[in-house]
Design goal:
CATH superfamily: Metal-dependent hydrolases
CATH class: Alpha Beta
Number of domains: 1
Radius of gyration: 17 Å
Strand order of the largest sheet: 1-2-3-4-5-6-7-8
Strand content: 5-15%
Order of helices and strands: EHEHEHEHEHEHEHEHH
Mean pLDDT: 97
CATH topology: TIM Barrel
Structural class: alpha/beta
Shape: globular
CATH architecture: Alpha-Beta Barrel
Number of helices: 9
Distance between the termini: 23 Å
Length: 282
């Protein structure tokens, strides 16, 4: 375990009594309220110095209230230093209405609009690209959440938005369960060549066999993102509570520790702390 408090850039929290998350109803193991108390109970010996709340794909009419709710939690827990909020980027310039509300809240550091369940070409629609440019113009990072089959579209999306800063969630969700590496490996290298993209080491175990994965199953994919993104553009993310489908929190941190074994103290601290502070401004 790291001998210093780390920053988790990807913590989900949910209150199903007050917010509607339709997708959770199809995953019974996750369809419950998840609190900061639950999060702390799962940490064991891992020390969290700061964290970012990651939106949980609530219904569109709940997004503003969700940010307000997390803001109220942050008033009671100083570790919550930022919010990655959902916004209707697909509305093009009209997304500014939501972004202007967020700009009144200094906790909002980034925007996410899930792409992973959308049809081919969704993120290349003119309105979506215009919405992304508005996100960048407001000074926000955009978190990319896709399946590996959408990396081709993602490459083109990033090329068309050179002034937007991006963070790729879950290393692009490669098909670890079947051991397939291409074309993910080649495309992840192409994405890393774009200097406005960083990569979050998060959500990897849930792309493997949930019950039987081993470190060796994950290692080729983790080694590849370390190789192509380097130590200035990699960030740690726990992906709690989704990660509970396949791993305990400490076991996931151990995976990242093993991946970084042999790296310098400075490189390890960059992944666990410094890059998050720089990229998300926390």
């Amino acid at each position: 375990m790291p001998d210093f408090p780390i920053i988790d850039t990807h913590v989900h929290l949910a209150d199903i009594e007050h917010f509607n998350h339709p997708w959770m109803k199809s995953v019974p193991a996750l369809n419950q309220t998840w609190t900061l108390k639950d999060f702390d109970a799962d940490l064991d010996d891992v020390r969290i110095g700061k964290m970012l709340f990651m939106e949980v794909n609530c219904r569109a009419d709940d997004v503003i209230r969700e940010v307000a709710w997390v803001t109220s939690l942050a008033q009671r827990d100083s570790r919550l230093e930022g919010v990655i909020a959902k916004a209707p980027v697909e509305l093009g310039s009209r997304v500014v209405e939501t972004l202007q509300i967020y700009r009144e809240n200094p906790l909002v550091k980034a925007i996410r609009r899930l792409i992973q369940e959308e049809a081919e070409g969704f993120c290349l629609r003119p309105a979506f690209l215009e919405g992304l440019r508005q996100v960048g113009a407001c000074g926000y990072v955009f978190d990319i959440c896709i399946h590996h089959t959408q990396l081709g579209d993602t490459l083109e999306m990033v090329r068309r938005c050179p002034d937007v800063r991006f963070v790729l969630d879950h290393i692009g969700k490669p098909d670890i369960a079947t051991g397939v590496r291409e074309p993910w490996s080649t495309q992840i290298g192409e994405l890393a060549a774009m200097e406005n993209v960083a990569c979050k080491i998060s959500g990897v175990v849930t792309e493997a066999n949930h019950q039987q994965w081993t470190f060796n199953d994950l290692r080729p994919y983790l080694d590849r993102v370390v190789e192509v993104f380097g130590f200035d553009r990699l960030l740690f993310g726990g992906d709690w509570f989704v990660q509970t489908l396949a791993s305990t929190y400490p076991r996931w941190v151990e995976v990242v520790d093993r991946t970084l074994s042999g790296c310098s103290d400075e490189e390890i601290r960059k992944v666990y702390v410094t890059n998050a502070e720089t990229i998300y401004g926390i």
